[in-house]
Design brief:
alpha+beta; 60s Ribosomal Protein L30, Chain: A; 3-stranded antiparallel β-sheet; elongated
Length: 170
């Protein structure tokens, strides 16, 4: 996404080397706009893109559900997030899942209420998914697939095809 006077947009796009530059930009001079106004205009442009990406991720989750390549179990998700095995994670906004994780043995202990040394395991899984280049969608609880607090699509290798080669789903 670019920002600036409209006749500068094409020049900027040509000079810019960032490969993820969004095609559409904010029209007009930003000099008289507040940070809030810039954010609102930018979000108006970007929101459809993010909503479409999220819809594709939900569809992938539903397609892979039951195949062993998805989970809505916080214990399984935490261990896999720590190991960098989550491609997409959905986390319910406002729902905390307190507990501890011991990475040496891969053990997750859940607690109904926060105890000393506890962390919000949903936040922990989200942070480790991001650290390992996964995608995290923080959504309203009713928007998490399988009506759970968390749901994940794991990175995986497809079974070998007839021709003996593998393809990676990401």
């Amino acid at each position: 996404m670019t920002n600036g006077v409209e006749n500068i947009h094409p020049i900027y796009k040509q000079a810019n080397t960032y490969r993820h530059l969004f095609e559409k930009g904010i029209a007009g001079s930003p000099d008289r706009l507040s940070s809030k106004e810039l954010h609102e205009r930018a979000w108006g442009i970007m929101q459809p893109f993010f909503e479409q990406s999220k819809a594709v991720a939900v569809s992938e989750y539903k397609q892979l559900a039951g195949s062993g390549h998805t989970s809505n179990d916080i214990q399984e998700i935490v261990a896999n997030a720590y190991q960098g095995k989550i491609e997409v994670l959905f986390v319910a906004l406002g729902l905390e899942q307190w507990g501890t994780f011991n990475p040496d043995i891969g053990r997750v202990d859940l607690h109904e209420k926060a105890q000393a040394c506890d962390v919000d395991l949903s936040d922990f899984a989200a942070a480790h998914t991001l650290i390992h280049q996964g995608t995290v969608y923080a959504v309203k609880p009713e928007k998490v697939p399988d009506s759970s607090a968390v749901a994940a699509v794991f990175r995986h290798e497809r079974h070998q095809h007839e021709h003996g080669h593998q393809s990676r789903i990401t």
